[in-house]
Write a structure and sequence with these properties.
- By secondary structure, the protein is an alpha/beta fold.
- The protein is about 30% helix and about 20% strand.
- The protein has helices spanning about 10-35, 45-55, 80-90, 110-125, 180-185, 200-205, 230-235; strands spanning about 5-10, 35-40, 65, 70, 135-140, 165-170, 175-180, 190-195, 225-230.
- A 6-stranded parallel sheet has the order 1-9-8-5-2-3. It has a 3-stranded antiparallel sheet with strand order 4-7-6.
- β2, α2 and β3 form a beta-alpha-beta unit.
- The longest helix is centred in the N-terminal third of the chain and has 23 residues, at about 10-35.
- The radius of gyration is 17 Å and the shape is globular.
- The structure holds the ligand O=C1O[C@H](COP(=O)(O)O)[C@@H](O)[C@H](O)[C@H]1O.
- The ligand O=C1O[C@H](COP(=O)(O)O)[C@@H](O)[C@H](O)[C@H]1O binds near residues 42, 81 and 140.
- The ligand O=C1O[C@H](COP(=O)(O)O)[C@@H](O)[C@H](O)[C@H]1O binds near residues 41, 42, 43, 142 and 149.
Length: about 240
């Protein structure tokens, strides 16, 4: 399946469509395997999506939540991706605590926390070392510099091909991030992108040829479905790109 691109006229329409896709994927994963594994993105765009999911009546005990990236701060820090998702969604529903799998940020060394989380993922998915598990859904955003998760332009994490989790680098600040091969092993990847400031990077990412080191979102070519959901201000020049 090639990438599916949809440009939605409003922010509300973008969130509604993302919700519809997430729900459909959750339902099909649960009916196929009895559970759904979903990795969340951070930043500002997905917050209304999480608030909308919190209003649904879902079989929460069958849903396992991960994060595609995390800022290296405690969960109660305003920048924490975990903290945002908990406040918007997870604290409002009856999901078992054991189904929430945040990236740890308390070792004092991001590389140690990256290894710890990698071991946790391998154990959860029962994948031997060197193999990449297939999450059912990975939600991604994209920054105006073309980064996704915490895969920032011209950083070491972009070249990591033998790990599930890498240490990202945002202007010298460490982050934890899913690696490109882990994201690319997913059954379904959904980018949710809004805002006119994303337009120049999107044009580079959708161009037939381009540089993945400068526009890291180009690295995302999953084995499963790839959806790009854009609001009108981000996607107006890409409406006819498939
Ligand atoms: O730093 C981050 O930014 C991206 C994009 O965020 P947005 O606010 O422009 O939607 C996000 O996907 C990533 O998870 C986050 O850590």
């Amino acid at each position: 399946m090639g990438k599916q691109v949809e440009v939605l006229p409003t922010m509300a329409g973008l969130i509604e469509r993302a919700l519809e896709l997430v729900l459909a994927q959750m339902q099909s994963s649960i009916s196929l395997s009895g559970r759904c594994t979903i990795a969340l993105s951070g930043g500002s765009t997905p917050k209304p999506l999480y608030e909308a999911i919190a209003n649904l009546d879902l079989p929460w005990e069958k849903i396992h939540v991960f994060w595609g990236d995390e800022r290296y701060v405690p969960p109660d820090h305003p920048d924490s991706n975990q903290g945002m998702a908990r406040r918007a969604w997870l604290d409002k529903v009856n999901i078992p605590a054991a189904n929430i799998h945040p990236m740890p940020t308390d070792a004092g060394d991001p590389a140690v926390d990256a290894s710890k989380h990698e071991a946790e993922l391998s154990e959860f998915f029962k994948t031997p070392p060197g193999e990449f598990p297939a999450l059912d859904i990975i939600l991604l955003g994209m920054g105006d510099d073309g980064h996704t998760a915490s895969l920032f332009p011209h950083t070491e994490a972009l070249g990591v091909s033998d790990r599930l989790i890498a240490v990202g680098n945002k202007d010298g600040q460490p982050r934890l991030t899913f690696t490109a091969p882990l994201i690319n092993s997913a059954r379904c990847v959904i980018f949710v992108v809004a805002g006119a400031n994303k337009r120049p990077a999107l044009a580079q990412i959708f161009a037939p040829q381009g540089d993945e080191m400068t526009y890291p979102s180009r690295l995302i070519q999953p084995v499963g479905e790839l959806w790009w959901l854009l609001d009108e201000s981000a996607g107006q020049e890409l409406k006819f790109v498939g």
